[in-house]
Amino acid sequence: MPELPEVEVIKRGLDSKIIGLSIQQIDILNPKTFQGDSKAVLGSKIIKIWRRAKVLGMDLDNGFSLLVHLKMSGQLVLVAKDRFIGGHPTLDMTGVMPNKSTRVIFEFSNEAKLFFNDQRKFGWIKVIKILEVKNQKFLQSLGPEPLERGFGWEALKANLLRHKSQPIKVAIMDQEVVAGVGNIYASEACFLAKINPKTKVSALTDANFQSLAKGIIESLNKSIDYGGSSKAHFVNEVGEKGYYLVFANVYGRAGQPCLKCHTPISKIALAGRGTYFCPHCQNV
DNA sequence: CACTTGACCTGTCCGC
DNA sequence: TGCGGACAGGTCAAGT
After folding, report:
1. Closest-lying nucleotide for A171 based on CA to C1'
2. pLDDT tens by residue, A101-146
3. SS3 letters for A126-157?
4. Which residues pair with A74 in a beta bridge?
């Protein structure tokens, strides 16, 4: 599921709800999902929630941090005590928790429960010391955050040029080029920039890099505004879907008319991933 | 070295 | 209704 906007939506939602709560209990239903010593965080209080690329971090007051990656199908769903029905944590859209995809359950000091659900079991949670976070190689090697002020097309261009012979859509999904862009927003950003996703990086001009940077920022921001993209799995921290895909230009719209020119949207595979574009509008 | 494919898992959908 | 195959928001490792 989740790319930058979806993780950001969860981060913002959890921020107002679990800061200051302490972790009373952790139930690990799927051992492979949880790395590190869960006892190290019991009794500690959540003091800060952050996001880097598609990784969510929860810093605790005992010097440890919980890192979460939702990969393809992960969810973080919080159920407050007043939403329990007949003793069971229950939400309107996601039903009774835990369900058959629940891998880890956190219980907080106010009796709220946070469910890590993950149908495909690719996602993970790990416990490490806050001081070690900056030494994690998967965080160190990440490219710039596209929604931070410092992000500009020059940096994007410089990073993309390390993959000159790759199709542009594949290159912008590389987390070392720009952080947080995945399969949905790579297609959407190429559409906004009017660039065919198959075009090799080496063929792009400065004007193309500029519009690409703009397209990345625009698609990510728009998605956050709509609460993210829900194809099959994504829900926010209280179990609600996001509606970006209702307004998407190309992703998931194979055969349907382009919203700008009415040409049917094409679907191809690039690096094994479904890729959508308008063959008429995206002519670079 | 740069790039593609397969693996990791579970589930759904579509064609025969 | 059943069965096989393709496909699904991500990332690694292995192979060419």
Report:
1. B3
2. 999 999 999 999 999 999 999 999 999 999 999 999 889 999 999 9
3. EEEEHHHHCCCHHHHCCCCCCCCCCCCHHHHH
4. A118
Res. A1: pLDDT tops 70: no
CA of A92 to C1' of B5 (A): 41
Local structure of residue A282 (DSSP, 8 states): -
Which tokens in the block code for residue A245?
């895909």
What letter does residue A270 receive in the DSSP assignment?
E
Q: Name the token pair of A25.
A: 């209990």
Instruction: Give residue-wise pLDDT tens across range A141-169.
Output: 999 999 999 999 999 999 999 999 999 99
**Encoded tokens for A107:** 């219980």
Question: What one-character DSSP code corresponds to residue A19?
Answer: T
Strand B closer than 7 A to residue A122 Cβ: yes
Return all residues near A160 (Cβ < 8 A) that are at least 6 apart: A168, A171, A172, A177, A201, A204, A209
Chain B bases having any atom below 7 Å from a protein CB: 2-6, 8-12
A231 touches strand B (CB under 7 A): no
Q: Which amino acid does the sequence have at A252?
A: G
Report pLDDT for A93. Answer: 82
Strand partners, A267: A276
> Would you say the C-beta of A255 is within 7 Å of strand B?
no
